[in-house]
């Protein structure tokens, strides 16, 4: 560690691969550094250094005993040089014969409080001109070798070990596309298969996504199956909710027969991988009444006073088709093993990304244990937390091992709300670290569960602007695919953030060739993300620039090397043209205050010559919702 001044220190270390690293902090007395500093001062002051050389030799000898290999041999040789220097200096108490500049400043006691050692001894000839023993005493190489073998007898250590988890790049930069495999059939009303999904892969790839996420693909329960629009009574032919997992065909490690067999899934996964797409699976730890665990392990479920198993509830909602697991079960150890083994099974089938349903309703100790053990075997595994809950709970799940998390982005709509939320994620809190050091938010403007109010009334303009915001503010974002690109904005009812005719309860047939689709915009945005490293992370480089119109929001991001800078300006009004002056903080763009520069719009291809910090912008949502400017200096 190196001093920052005023008793503050900093340090760093490099990590060389994926995995979990442990570290801690230790403070000790560095006797050699103290000696070397005092030696410099005495030498500069022209004082006798004979005893000091002997003291140094003893310290180096002690270090040699702590060292090993070549370092031990070198330290012994250095100790011998220092000891020989003491003998050449004459009897103790006599002035050293070393060449000292008599005009040196008056001596300073070695124990002077807060004394800073000089980089080069004052009044002393260059190190190269000194006798060998003095050169050795002042050697930076000697100090470096000794530092590798500290004397820890009087060391004070931080009272706990800290951990850092190193994930692969996709944990930081990913573009998710969600689809229901059962809705991928070419014909209306026909249940889709994995083979039908394969026919959609080229389309998803063409949009620029790299993660293809499926809701649960397991057998769906028949008891208490829900009908369309979450009806309590299912009609003949109703397919039920994929989250009601388990039937006589199997449970969490089995596949819904209508989708295909395991070999069909494997074929699909390989086909996706050949196109640069990763399959992400939904892991929902809950069971339909028909799940084999209900019969084989009834102790894993909570009973009501009348002896029946407690189904899931979130009043006023009732989920009679789902039994939650009881993490207070007396047989919790066997249950934990079984749940962890679900992940291990699918990881064994080549899946490395898991979206986890409602992890905040399960024991936190389970997640820490399970994720740690899974990543020990599969260090490239990633976990997305679907925990729309309190901030501290979401943050704690991240600290326990979740690689990404759904976020509050859905509900941050005004300029002030968006800026405040982004700063909450990226800026340090008091003396602490920013959330982005441990919490990777994933921005989704919609999900099968959430039709946000901002999408219900703004039409095409709302879908377009919310897409651009999610994809340019954050390195991780996703959309509930066809429903988003085809502008599904019909709610279940007034004041409800749910879809009418939700795909969660019925087969859908999506016309992806519809002229209403915003697929061309999605493709442009994802291309900009892929080609600009500045857009591939969410970190402290995110800076909001002032605009004199509250309906326009502007922000820039830089790549770590500063070579790539992107300035995004979004019209938050989905229906009307908005204009204003953007006042750019030039330093954030890597430019001088009066510099001339080019901004190239990655959505339209147009380029503009700007000068200085103040420039005019105009955005009409009927034409484009935003400027995504790549900034180039002239």
Q: How is the main sheet built?
A: 8 strands, parallel
For this structure, what is the CATH homologous superfamily of the largest domain? Answer: Glycosidases
Secondary structural class: alpha/beta
Summed up, the domain count is 3
Given the C-alpha coordinates, what overall shape results?
globular
CATH topology annotation of the largest domain: TIM Barrel
CATH-level-2 architecture of the largest domain: Alpha-Beta Barrel
Cα(first) to Cα(last) distance is 41 Å
Counted beta strands: 26
Strand order of the largest sheet: 17-16-15-14-9-8-7-18
Poorly predicted sequence stretches spanning 5 or more consecutive residues: 90-124
Classified by CATH, the class of the largest domain is: Alpha Beta
Summarize the structure.
With 634 residues, the protein is an alpha/beta fold. The chain is built from 17 helices and 26 strands.
Would you write up a description of this structure?
The model is unreliable at 90-124 (pLDDT under 50). The two termini are 41 Å apart. It contains 17 helices and 26 strands. The chain is globular. The chain has 3 domains: 26-157, no CATH class; 169-528, TIM Barrel; 543-633, Golgi alpha-mannosidase II (Immunoglobulin-like, Sandwich). Strands 17-16-15-14-9-8-7-18 form an 8-stranded parallel β-sheet. The relative contact order is 0.08. With 634 residues, it is of the alpha/beta class.
Pick out its properties.
26 strands, 634 residues, globular, alpha/beta
How do the strands and helices of this protein lay out in sequence?
Elements: E1 2-5, E2 8-10, E3 19-23, E4 26-27, H1 31-44, H2 50-66, H3 69-88, H4 132-137, H5 140-147, E5 156-157, E6 162-166, E7 174-178, H6 194-198, H7 201-207, E8 211-214, H8 262-273, E9 278-283, E10 286-287, H9 292-296, E11 312-314, E12 317-319, E13 323-324, H10 332-348, E14 353-357, H11 364-377, E15 382-386, H12 391-400, E16 404-406, H13 415-426, E17 441-442, H14 453-456, H15 459-473, E18 476-480, H16 481-485, H17 519-531, E19 543-547, E20 552-558, E21 565-571, E22 578-583, E23 596-601, E24 607-611, E25 614-619, E26 626-633
Parallel strand pairs: 7-8, 7-18, 8-9, 9-14, 14-15, 15-16, 16-17
Antiparallel strand pairs: 1-2, 3-6, 4-5, 10-13, 11-12, 19-20, 19-22, 20-21, 21-26, 22-25, 23-24, 23-26
């Amino acid at each position: 560690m190196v001093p920052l001044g005023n008793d503050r220190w900093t340090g760093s270390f490099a990590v060389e691969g994926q995995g979990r690293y442990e570290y801690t902090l230790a403070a000790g007395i560095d006797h050699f550094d103290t000696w070397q500093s005092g030696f410099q001062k005495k030498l500069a002051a022209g004082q006798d250094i004979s005893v000091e050389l002997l003291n140094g030799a003893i310290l180096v000898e002690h270090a040699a005993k702590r060292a090993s290999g070549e370092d031990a041999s070198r330290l012994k040789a250095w100790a011998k040089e220092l000891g020989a220097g003491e003998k050449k200096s004459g009897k103790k108490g006599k002035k050293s014969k070393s060449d000292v500049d008599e005009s040196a400043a008056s001596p300073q006691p070695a124990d002077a409080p807060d004394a800073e050692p000089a980089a080069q001894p004052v009044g002393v000839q260059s190190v190269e001109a000194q006798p060998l023993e003095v050169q050795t005493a002042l050697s930076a190489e000697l100090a470096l070798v000794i530092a590798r073998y500290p004397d820890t007898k009087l060391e004070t250590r931080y009272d706990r070990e800290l951990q850092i988890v190193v994930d692969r790049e996709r944990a930081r930069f990913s573009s998710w596309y969600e689809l229901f495999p059962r809705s991928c059939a070419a014909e209306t009303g026909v249940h889709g298969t994995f083979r039908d999904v394969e026919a959609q892969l080229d389309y998803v790839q063409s949009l620029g996504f790299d993660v293809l996420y499926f809701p649960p693909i397991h057998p769906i329960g028949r008891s208490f199956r829900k009908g369309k629009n979450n009806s309590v009574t299912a009609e003949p032919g109703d397919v039920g909710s994929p989250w009601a997992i388990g039937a006589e065909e199997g449970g969490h490690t089995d596949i819904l027969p209508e989708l295909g067999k395991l070999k069909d899934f494997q074929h699909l996964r390989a086909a996706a991988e050949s196109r640069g797409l990763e399959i992400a699976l939904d892991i929902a730890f809950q069971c339909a009444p028909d799940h084999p665990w209900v019969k084989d392990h009834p102790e894993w479920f909570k009973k009501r006073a009348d002896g029946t198993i407690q189904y899931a509830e979130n009043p006023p909602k009732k989920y009679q088709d789902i039994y939650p697991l009881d993490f207070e079960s007396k047989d919790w150890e066997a249950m934990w093993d079984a749940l962890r083994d679900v992940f291990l099974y699918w990881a064994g089938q080549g899946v490395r990304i898991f979206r986890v349903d409602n992890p905040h309703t399960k024991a936190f100790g389970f997640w820490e244990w399970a994720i740690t053990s899974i990543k020990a075997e599969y260090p490239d595994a990633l976990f997305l937390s679907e925990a729309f809950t309190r901030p501290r709970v979401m943050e704690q799940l991240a600290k326990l091992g979740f690689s990404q998390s759904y976020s509050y982005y859905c509900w941050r709509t005004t300029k002030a709300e968006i800026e405040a939320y982004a700063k909450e994620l990226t800026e340090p809190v008091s003396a602490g670290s920013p959330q982005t050091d441990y919490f990777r938010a994933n921005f989704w403007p919609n999900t099968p569960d959430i039709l946000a109010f901002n999408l219900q009334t703004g039409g095409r303009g709302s879908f377009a602007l919310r897409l651009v915001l999610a994809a340019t503010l954050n390195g991780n974002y996703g959309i509930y695919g066809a429903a988003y690109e085809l502008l599904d904005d019909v709610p279940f009812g007034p004041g409800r953030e749910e879809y009418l005719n939700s795909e969660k309860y019925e087969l859908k047939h999506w016309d992806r060739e519809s002229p209403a689709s915003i697929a061309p915009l999605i493709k442009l945005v994802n291309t900009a993300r892929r080609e600009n490293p500045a857009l591939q992370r969410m970190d402290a480089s995110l800076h909001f620039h002032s605009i004199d119109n509250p309906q326009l929001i502007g922000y820039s991001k830089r790549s770590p090397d500063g070579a790539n800078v992107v300035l995004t300006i979004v019209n938050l009004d989905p229906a009307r043209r908005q204009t204003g002056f953007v006042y750019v903080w030039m330093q954030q763009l890597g430019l001088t205050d009066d510099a001339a520069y080019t901004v190239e719009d990655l959505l339209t291809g147009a380029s503009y010559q700007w000068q200085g910090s103040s420039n005019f912008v105009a955005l009409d949502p009927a034409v484009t919702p935003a400027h995504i400017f790549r900034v180039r200096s002239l």
